[in-house]
Design brief:
Layout (H helix, E strand, L loop, with lengths): L13 H34 L4 H11 L5 H24 L3 H27 L16 H21 L9 H17 L15 E2 L19 E7 L3 H16 L5 E6 L6 H5 L8 E4 L1 H4 L10 E6 L2 E7 L5 H10 L5
Parallel strand pairs: 2-3, 3-4
Antiparallel strand pairs: 1-6, 2-5, 5-6
Helix pairs in contact: 1-3, 1-5, 2-3, 2-7, 3-6, 4-5
Length: about 325
């Protein structure tokens, strides 16, 4: 008797097919969320660079005890760390054991800062978490952090346990990020103030038509000479406005060189300046300065400069005590 060597046909197991499809779908969702999370941190880091001075100001405003110089260092370290985290998440390295727990801890820390800012300043229109180009209010940032933490918890549950082999790759990525951020966004090195051989008369005291009515130039005051085309001038004004929110200032005056193609609105947006300002014609602007440096800061008493600085040697950390002594800080 001959045997039937043909193999009997078996119908595919429907349950196994469904399990396979579910596995593929979950794998795809996990990969999409992981890439989205990594790109979010990279975007957060890159957007903070435009301009980085705004992020510096937000750190010093939130934590004035850090001081200006250390705040600038912290700003660049945060950006480099976010950039590194984003790159490593996309690469899929050390996710379960290191990266996801570290990222959750970082987001919880940022969430505490947002809650503190919400209590202290209210719902500000931009918390600075995505720079100036993509504003998030404090409440929106709080919701965003909660959503990201939820995504990370899900991804952590789905991630596989892997060894910490090639850990040095992460150290290299972090080192390169820090080096790149600090080289492309240098922290100003402040020199001593400029010494005057003799008091220089402040001729601008005769100017009229201030954009505020409350002006008393006979008092000791701080005069800032700026142009609308100077990036450091914009940075200086932003820092002065930030300092004013931390330590209220008085007797501060802005003097802008008149430019035909750039207006104050284009330079500073719709935000109002806190102090009186005067726009001086370009052909006479530098006649009021004892030194041709922009931005120029002068402390004036009895109609004459007693101290002068440039934007490159005016350190808020160092000069804060001087401003307090001279009565500029209330």
């Amino acid at each position: 008797m001959l045997r039937n060597t043909r193999t009997a046909y078996k119908k595919p197991n429907k349950l196994k097919i469904n399990n396979l499809l579910n596995y593929i779908q979950m794998k795809l969702v996990t990969q999409i969320l992981r890439v989205f999370l990594g790109l979010t941190f990279i975007a957060s880091a890159v957007l903070k660079l435009f301009p980085i001075e705004a992020f510096d100001a937000r750190i010093i405003e939130t934590a004035p005890f850090l001081g200006w110089t250390f705040s600038m260092i912290m700003a660049r370290l945060i950006i480099a760390f976010e950039l590194t985290i984003g790159i490593i998440i996309i690469a899929g390295l050390w996710l379960r054991r290191v990266v996801y727990p570290l990222t959750i801890a970082m987001l919880l820390f940022f969430t505490c800062i947002v809650v503190y800012a919400l209590i202290r300043f209210g719902n500000q229109p931009n918390c600075g978490c995505f720079g100036e180009l993509l504003p998030f209010s404090n409440v929106e940032s709080l919701i965003k952090n909660i959503v990201l933490i939820g995504i990370i918890v899900f991804l952590h549950y789905r991630a596989k346990e892997r060894s910490l082999k090639y850990w040095w790759i992460g150290v290299i990525v972090l080192g390169v990020s820090i080096f790149t951020i600090f080289i492309t966004n240098k922290i100003p090195l402040y020199l001593d103030e400029i010494e005057l051989d003799e008091p220089f008369p402040a001729h601008y005291l005769n100017c009229e038509n201030y954009h505020f009515n409350e002006t008393n130039l006979e008092q000791k005051h701080l005069a800032l000479f700026l142009t609308t085309t100077c990036p450091r001038c914009k940075e200086l004004v932003r820092n002065i406005e930030t300092l004013n929110r931390i330590h209220p200032l008085q007797n501060v005056y802005y003097y802008f060189c008149e430019e035909s193609h750039v207006t104050l609105t284009e330079l500073f947006g719709d935000s109002d300046l806190s102090f009186p300002y005067q726009i001086i014609p370009k052909d006479t602007f530098f006649e009021y300065l004892p030194a041709p440096y922009i931005p120029f800061i002068g402390l004036v008493d009895s109609g004459k400069y007693t101290r002068i600085w440039t934007g490159a040697n005016f350190s808020f950390d160092r000069e804060k005590q001087v401003l307090k002594k001279e009565g500029i800080i209330k």
